[in-house]
Design a protein that fits this description.
The N terminus and C terminus are likely disordered. It is built from 27 helices and 21 strands. The longest helix is centred in the N-terminal third of the chain and has 26 residues. α10 crosses α26, α10 crosses α27 and α12 runs parallel beside α13. A seven-stranded parallel β-sheet has the order 11-12-10-13-14-9-15, sandwiched between helices. The chain folds into four domains: 83 residues, no CATH class; 96 residues, OB fold (Dihydrolipoamide Acetyltransferase, E2P) (Beta Barrel); 196 residues, Rossmann fold (3-Layer(aba) Sandwich); 157 residues, 3-Layer(aba) Sandwich (Rossmann fold). Bound molecules: adenosine-5'-diphosphate (ADP) and magnesium ion (MG). Adenosine-5'-diphosphate binds next to α13.
Length: 692
């Protein structure tokens, strides 16, 4: 087939259609979207510096004007156009490394040029490389406003955007969504002047306040944006509270007996979050609570106690975990606690044989199974509960929103008055408080901010991987002291096969290097019973060294393991490293984590390893992670509603968040019309992003 000329292969598009689709890529669909597409910075074309003054501002962007005194194509060191312009006493060189023939004529000797760009001191004195320039007549008027520079996509030039935005500004309805008295009370600028100023700032404006977005005009925009977000969150919360849930009072004796039988006392933090959860479970609208706690902080027992309350009320509870290893571990631990107290705990995962699965399903459906623990298998259609009162999701960020909803709907979706089960989500990936409050739709947050007593912080070292022999010696020493070791294989995102290969190779290497030790291997491709057998052997200390891929990342609990080796640590993200490290330091022995890396390290990898070395505090690590990666990536687009906050910065604008939250409450109570108008303006179709 012969190639058609490019032009003929696509249907003809009008230029308006073309720019519409380019605008859509930037999320700009309506006139209001365009008007709220605010500049990211400005250029100052409002003044001309004398060349003498300009020459004193090396490294700064300057605008100068003068007559061309020389215009020459040079060939060394490469072909370039060199134009000299001069005013009364000084000259500046304009250097063009790419140029058209027409520019030679345009910039002929005697032409008057206004040029703008970063001034540098070159071999021949002050010069500007690739200036923006135009030919002017003497005394041509200067702009009286700063020139906006907008975030642009491919094929959208600044002049096009400026024109589109200016046009949109003539068409929109400028009505303020906040009343004048309200604005006065909040000490905020009105909408229209704020927007107009940001698009076309007068030259007297405080430029640094524009640049760092502390200008009152920016404050108004940030406030509006945060208000829209808070309104949307609160509305979701109101909708949830309008749904019914079964209140779960403690009628039975399980909760009490369970607490008494526990081999340890709850920490203060555990008691505090348990009280919060218990309070929620007594309400007749569904709880939606995120239980956050660093790895090893003891979330499982809190979840089990919440389940006990549901069971004490005559309801069922379900606990879903993201991997079979983790689900199995929860099952064993919780069954060991609860079965002696007469609770029927069922287990459901994809690896069950068909007959076992059916039997379990029957138990769940009849209500005989009071607590059900399992994996994704729980959300299959065939699974039906008799009376589900509480849904618990461990490592909630591992599940999609849809999966969590499906599980919850097994108890009832709130339609036609059906009761919605209470929901408890757990996560060891700490979300900084500001993010939790502003990004997560409608969620109460409980935090376990204390580890059980007697834990010694894990000592972390970064070790160049060419010192592997020393590391193997450490492994040996740890085992001689009766301890166990994890050896985590590198993450190879591009290829699962390669990752498997590396794990097998590492296993073989360690078997050879440590002939008198038992070295086990566990990875994602093993069948469940095989995985189980290896994990069991490790739990019973029959395996000394466990070589593992990242399947052990979540939740595995073997307190006797005290050394963690992570190979190619530079390939892992911070939260993953933190999770992995959390597998050790669970007992009372001092634990060590060795991060093997391959040099040279890139900037972010170095930051990550340095953070890991410096702290074991999950919240501090999350904060660092946020700093290194930014909020959008931190949470993942799906759960962050990241399209939401374009202007406000949660670190520096916390005071605005607080104001916005208060006003949101008032408006929802008193002024539904204002709420509608504001949400429409700021979110339009985007509100769905928040309905997580
Ligand atoms: P995570 O929060 O990471 O899920 P786990 O629930 O697995 O942590 O708890 C880690 C370990 O600490 C478990 O062995 C658990 O039994 C134990 N544990 C939990 N709470 C306490 C406590 N209050 N005192 C002592 N040990 C506890
Ligand atoms: Mg856990």
């Amino acid at each position: 087939m012969s190639a058609l000329p490019k032009k003929m292969t696509r249907p003809v598009e009008s230029s308006a259609q073309k720019s519409a689709s380019k605008l859509a890529k930037l999320g700009l669909h309506t006139d209001m979207d365009l008007v709220l597409h605010l500049p990211m910075r400005y250029e100052d074309e409002t003044q001309i510096l004398s060349m003498r003054d300009a020459a004193l501002r090396g490294g700064q962007v300057v605008q100068v004007e003068g007559m061309v005194s020389d215009c020459d194509v040079q060939y060394k060191p490469r072909r370039q156009l060199v134009v000299t312009i001069a005013d009364d006493d000084t000259q500046v060189v304009l250097r063009f490394l790419h140029f058209y023939g027409s520019q030679l004529k345009q910039l002929a000797i005697g032409a008057r040029v206004r040029a703008r760009g970063e001034l540098k001191h070159g071999f021949f004195g002050p010069e500007i490389v690739h200036p923006a320039y135009k030919i002017v007549n003497e005394g041509a008027p200067l702009s009286t406003e700063l020139t906006p520079v907008y975030p642009a996509g491919e094929g959208l030039s600044q002049p096009m955007l400026r024109k589109l935005i200016a046009d949109a500004m003539t068409r929109i309805e400028w009505r303020d969504t906040l009343s004048p008295p309200l604005l006065a009370a909040l000490d905020l600028l009105a909408f229209e002047p704020a927007v107009r100023l940001l698009h076309n700032p007068p030259k007297e404006v405080d430029e640094s306040a524009l640049a760092d977005r502390s200008h009152p005009a920016w404050e108004r925009m940030k406030f509006d944006e945060l208000l829209a977000q808070q309104l949307s969150l609160k509305r979701a919360q109101i909708a949830r509270r309008a749904k019914g849930a079964a209140a779960l009072p403690v009628i039975g004796t399980l909760s009490d007996n369970f607490l008494k039988a526990l081999p340890f006392a709850l920490t203060h933090a555990q008691q505090k979050v348990l009280a919060e959860i218990r309070g929620d479970l007594l309400a007749s609208f569904p709880m939606q609570r995120l239980l956050q706690g660093d790895v090893g902080s003891g979330k499982t027992v809190v979840a089990a106690l919440a389940a006990a309350q549901a069971i004490d009320s005559g309801f069922q509870a379900v606990l879903m975990a993201p991997t079979e290893i983790l689900a199995d571990q929860h099952f064993r631990k919780i069954a060991a606690w609860m079965e002696p107290l007469g609770v029927k705990v069922a287990w459901l995962t994809g690896s069950l044989k068909k007959k076992e699965k059916t039997e379990t399903q029957v138990m769940i459906e009849s209500g005989a199974a009071q607590l059900v623990i399992g994996t994704h298998a729980l959300i299959q259609d065939a699974v039906q509960f008799a009376q589900l009162g509480l849904v618990i999701v461990d490592e909630q960020h591992r599940f999609g929103v849809g999966q969590r909803l499906t599980l919850r709907n097994k108890g009832g979706d709130g339609k036609q008055g059906t009761l919605v089960p209470h929901q408890l989500m757990m996560s060891a990936t700490p979300i900084p408080r500001t993010l939790a409050m502003t990004y997560y739709a409608d969620l109460e947050v409980s935090v376990i901010d204390e580890l059980p007593p007697g834990r010694i912080p894990v000592l972390t070292r970064a070790v160049d991987q060419n010192r592997r022999d020393e590391v193997i010696e450490r492994v040996h020493a740890a085992v001689r002291e009766g301890r166990q070791v994890y050896w985590v294989c590198p993450l190879i995102e591009e290829s699962e096969a390669l990752q498997l290969q590396t794990a097998t190779d590492t296993h073989a290497m360690l078997v050879e290097a440590l002939p008198e030790l038992q070295v086990g291997l566990v990875h994602g491709r093993l069948k469940q019973p095989e995985k189980q057998a290896v994990m069991d052997a490790f739990t019973r200390a029959e395996i000394h060294v466990l070589v593992a891929t990242t399947v052990i990342e979540v939740g595995v609990d073997v307190p006797n393991a005290s050394l963690m080796v992570i190979e190619h640590a530079e390939r892992f993200g911070l939260s993953q490293l933190h999770q992995l490290r959390g597998r050790v330091g669970r007992g009372s022995a001092a634990s060590v984590c060795l991060l093997l890396y391959q040099s040279p390290l890139g900037w972010t990898a170095k930051q990550r390893l340095m953070t890991m070395r410096a702290t074991t505090d999950g919240f501090e690590i999350a904060r660092k992670d946020l700093e290194i990666r930014g909020p959008g990536e931190f949470l993942g687009a799906r759960q962050s509603g990241q399209a939401m906050l374009r202007f406000a910065d949660l670190e520096t604008d916390q005071w605005l968040v607080d104001k916005a939250r208060q006003l949101a409450q008032t408006l929802l109570r008193e002024d539904p019309l204002a709420v509608e108008g504001h949400l429409q303006r700021w979110l339009g179709a985007r509100e769905d992003f928040l309905k997580v």
